[in-house]
Amino acid sequence: MPDTTPRSGWRPTRTQKIIVALLLLIVWTAMANSWTDKGCNLGQSYVYVISHGGSPDRDQGCEDEPGGPVYTDQYYG
């Protein structure tokens, strides 16, 4: 006898998954932009959003060094 009982619980559609992914990307980009305002490269900024848990604190940022911007927790920009 085939199982004809409906599944319990809500399951997101493909469109809903895409919308959520785009919203997360927009939020991630906005937070990364706050790191670029503190002197970091865009690539570094995306990594810092994940590794530092979001936007920079008042004393976090990047300082120019000969090899490129470097993270510091004593930023006075």
How would you describe the overall organization of this protein?
The chain has one domain. The chain has 2 helices and 2 strands. Strands 1-2 form a two-stranded antiparallel sheet.
How would you briefly describe this protein structure?
The chain is mostly helical.
Biggest sheet, strands in spatial order? 1-2
DSSP summary, beta strand count: 2
Given helix and strand content, the structural type is mainly alpha
Share of helix, binned:
40-55%
Radius of gyration: 20 Å
Main beta sheet: strand number and arrangement? 2 strands, antiparallel
Discrete helix count: 2
Summarize the helix and strand pattern as letters.
Answer: HHEE
Number of domains: 1
Strand proportion: 5-15%
Q: What is the straight-line distance between the termini? A: 71 Å
**Silhouette:** rod-shaped
pLDDT under 50 segments (min length 5)? none
What's the overall average pLDDT, rounded?
Answer: 88
Region (Disordered): 55-77
